[in-house]
Amino acid sequence: TIYSDPSQLSSKSYDYIIIGAGTAGNVIANRLTENADSKVLVIEAGDVRDGNPYLEVPLLATQLSPNTSYTWNYTTVPQQGLNNRQIPYPRGRIVGGTSSINWLFWTRGSSNDFDRYAQVTGDPGWSWFGLMPYMYKNEKLTPPADGHNTTGQINPALHGTSGPLEISVYGYANELDDKVVQTTKELSDEFPYNEDQNSGNPLGVGFLQASIGGGQRSCSASAYLEPALSRSNLDVLVQTTVTKIYQTGQTGSTPIFRGVQFAQSSSGPHYALNATKEVILSAGSINTPQILMLSGIGDANSLQALGITPVLDLPDVGRNLSDHPLLSNLFAVNSNKTIDTIFEDPAVAGADFSQWESNRTGLFVDALSNNVGWLRLPSNASIFQEVADPAAGPLSPHYEMIIIDGWASIADPQPGYGHWMSLVTNLISPTSRGSVTLASSDPFDAPHVDAALLNSDFDIFTMKEAIKAARRFAQGSAFKGFVTSAYPPLANATDDASLEQYAREHTTTVWHPTGTTAMSACQAGHGVVDPDLNVKGTIGLRVVDAGIFPFIPGAHPQAPLYMVAERAADLIKAGTQLCSWYDRPFWWFPW
Ligand SMILES: Cc1cc2nc3c(=O)[nH]c(=O)nc-3n(C[C@H](O)[C@H](O)[C@H](O)COP(=O)(O)OP(=O)(O)OC[C@H]3O[C@@H](n4cnc5c(N)ncnc54)[C@H](O)[C@@H]3O)c2cc1C
């Protein structure tokens, strides 16, 4: 049942309280309520999905943020690496969380990414092999909206067919598809074709998979939460903000945190409920550390300075934020078929939208792009003389190139004329680390977000190399006569200094903050959660959201997060406490 008034909740006693009906939170809510004996409450600051078609139409995803009623409208602190520009930093604030407003890219990352998680946590369950059952459990591979033959564009054997989350390849062919494939043949050393980038080896150029089924968005609301709402053991409280977690007891010297405080406004009544089993924080990589710090869990000195009484000194809360900087490289093209048509001509947009409404076909059925490349610097790149390779391994990319049949830029508005191709380069293995910190002790104040975009030598070096690679790609013979010129800021970036200036002036982000509540090994002196995702040094409190990745996945993070959440649900159901073994005295006995 959905409630929007805390005083109306059907029960005062829940086994589990989940904070945030977002991407990960809804997976946990669905899986825990499969057991009819588990009573679950989900508390969500945003509202239910209101039927606005923008929430369903894949191509319109870019219109859902920033600065809409569906998002937390944050802005970064001035970004040193971007000439001190401040960048909009939206997160989903709606049932489904960021999965309800994101751009639908479905990319798992490389097996090396996950094997590194297993290595740093000491838990083989986080390896590629360990998570494989959950990849299948989560996915439902569906035919594309136009029903075309997908042979050679995706390998069905690598995908689930009966999970909740629908995925597919493009459902509307565009003029770039053939040119891209031709370029992978012509420039195969640098841009080899990859039939399925979700095999564990994403490297090369291939057809994008997206969280789309039947021509519309599939998200954690449609796939996981809404289908479970008929269960009598699931309550969802919307329009309600969790303001803090509080201690409800202790076992030995370990505090138990099963209390949750919440309110609908800073001046309105505050409510409190205790979970009988666990509280699960799934408020996302910005708000989960915010809630922990508001609760006195974080760096004790910083909390004290804000007048918050420290309850548990856990300095890494909010630190280690990793994100993927994004740069749109724009080229004028000789075409009248790009998606620019719909943004320039309302009549065309109207006709395409009607087609989508009537039978879920046409231009509106796809995410922005049909083709994506995941690429590495050459192993003899000069930067490796100064910096160890930050990628998780030889299968993990350093940068991504998203190929778009039209103008797609966050930094530069569409000029209102012409037809364009965007080669969007994203830095995938950044070494910069940012943070989330509290602005004040008021839970309704936005936290400070430092995304640390292009803040290191490696990051700027790699972004410059990615731009050069995009230029080489656009010079493939398939684009002769099609690409007419580069947009001036790119065209004018001719030497190293002007390339750097161009990157710093035009880079923004693809909004993949991770790592702010990082997972680490049981006995590690750093990190925020243990390999079972319990907040270190507590009982009754876990985190399941994008904050737990100790290193940013070499991918758009939703697919990795769904796998993590599916496994986390099993850990919670089983009550697994791997680290408690370390606390047993005999573990240390030198036998
Ligand atoms: C514009 C944009 C486009 C993106 N595109 C892609 C993409 O194409 N592919 C991809 O893989 N990734 C994409 N991402 C990233 C990806 O969607 C996120 O990493 C992922 O969805 C995060 O999931 P989460 O569970 O950590 O948090 P969320 O899904 O954000 O869930 C957190 C939930 O908690 C709620 N909440 C927060 N604070 C409180 C509180 N105090 N009380 C109650 N509720 C609270 C929020 O309202 C939200 O519903 C995109 C992100 C953005 C912003």
Automatic annotation (TrEMBL):
The active site is at H512 (proton donor), H556 (proton acceptor). Keywords: FAD, Flavoprotein, Signal. The keyword Transit peptide does not apply. FAD binds at T98, V242, W511, H512, P557, Q558. GO terms for molecular function: flavin adenine dinucleotide binding; oxidoreductase activity, acting on CH-OH group of donors. The keyword Transmembrane helix does not apply. It comes from the Eukaryota. It holds the Pfam family GMC_oxred_N. Its cofactor is FAD. Residues 92-115, 284-298 form the Glucose-methanol-choline oxidoreductase N-terminal domain. InterPro entries: FAD/NAD-bd_sf (IPR036188), GMC_OxRdtase (IPR012132), GMC_OxRdtase_N (IPR000172), GMC_OxRtase_C (IPR007867). Transmembrane segments: none annotated. Belongs to the GMC oxidoreductase family. PANTHER family: CHOLINE DEHYDROGENASE, MITOCHONDRIAL (PTHR11552:SF147), GLUCOSE-METHANOL-CHOLINE GMC OXIDOREDUCTASE (PTHR11552). This is GMC oxidoreductase. It comes from Neolentinus lepideus HHB14362 ss-1. The lineage of its organism: Eukaryota, Fungi, Dikarya, Basidiomycota, Agaricomycotina.
